[in-house]
Amino acid sequence: MPSLPKHPGESWQLPPRYKVTELIGSGSYGSVCEAEDDFNGQRQPVAIKKCKRIFEDLVDCKRILREVSILSKLSHRNVVKVSDFYIPGDMSRFTEIYMIMELCDSDLKKLCRQDVTLSPIHVNTLLYNLLVGLNYIHSAGIYHRDLKPANCFVNQDCTVKIGDFGLSRAIKGEQKHLKHLPHTPRDGDQAPLPQVPHTKRAAKNLTGHVVTRWYRAPELILLQDNYTEAIDVWSVGCIYAELLGMLPQAGKSYMDRGPLFPGTSCFPLSPDHKHKSDYKYYTNGKHDMLKKIFGLLGTPEQKDIDACIEREDAKRYIACFPKQVGDGLRKVFKEIDAGMLDILEKMLIFNPKTRISVQEALAHPLLADIRDKTLETTSPDVVVLPFEKEPDLDEDLLRRYFNMELRKYHPEVPEYKSSRGYGS
After folding, report:
1. Is 146 among the catalytic positions?
2. Where does this protein hold ATP (predicted)?
3. What percent of the chain has pLDDT over 90?
4. Which residues, other chains included, contact 33 with Cβ-Cβ below 8 Å and sequence gap of 6+?
5. Among 141, 163, 304, 419, which is 20 to 30 Å from 104 by CA?
6. Phi, psi of 149 (to 5 degrees)
7. Does pLDDT of 183 surpass 80?
8. Which option is the CATH number for 8-102+390-409: 3.40.630.30, 3.30.200.20, 3.40.50.2300, 3.40.50.300?
9. Are 47 and 101 in contact (CB under 8 A)?
10. 50 is in an annotated binding site
11. Which residue is catalytic, options 37, 146, 164, 288?
């Protein structure tokens, strides 16, 4: 873990109420630290994400704006909460921003790497909390698109909080037909929740932004345009599979745990420059993502290919794979409960139209003893991101939108008057 400078506050341009205490993560966008928020004399631990040099790459800058904007609109116990947003300096010249978020004990990636085992109640409670968070996100018209263990933060009481929305997509108006439930948080006396071992503070971690394809649904790998929220269900299935590897009956050393589909290549998403159109080349290798998926789940039937694959190059690619039944998930998880295997198999179905939905997964018999419907709240509004429709989202316009986000938390900040005439 990298160490902080001798005087950490000098490199973190924050209001006096925040005192940086420890650096807990770093990545291509910047760093994350633990800090104390001394608001009204009540010190609370927080995580602060610093995004630096944000205008060097406008594509990355838009991802940061997307994350800030989405998180400012979501409010749920299973989604990371942003409590403050800070931009130092002048609106026309700033180069870094700070997101102040709730601090969690760990994340699922770090948890899976701990030399500990989990009981079935731990694993299923983590799954349930993840599904509850996803149900809320989808009700707000958001597809996460990058769910992976490192983006799922966890506390000792098994509460999971979904974060990192930089690759998310807001589907304006497509889910307005959903009947939203009132927000009815749990209260009163409840049975004690299972405790996740080795997550309390010592294992805390917030990782930098790393795009991985191990958790991506086949329709995303195959570059389909008309995908649905089922992409996130596939990702949850992949995460659940890793958690199942922590059960004592899995018989795995913590050093042998890892993703279910650890492919290192991903055609047609990232073709080899020497074999851009040689589909057969990729099916002969051992490390292609779909090769990993088909080796375990079997090649899809033609009716499923026709039902969910639109691109002709993707169909030609799939046709190059030899027909196989697949080893099956039972070969990987020999000793797990039948209910665990059943829900996993239903999440990891090639055809997104027959893949289990979030609502169906929440109602699965496996989760009957854990389920608390009062937690399964939905968003009263569909999230709309106006900047996604801008034909020319240049630096000046990005600054305006960042200013708009800042004013949600600090209305005293003047409206940005851009060189293009935006602002009053």
Report:
1. yes
2. 50
3. 65
4. 4, 8, 12, 20, 21, 22, 23, 24, 47, 48, 50
5. 141
6. -55, -35
7. no
8. 3.30.200.20
9. yes
10. yes
11. 146
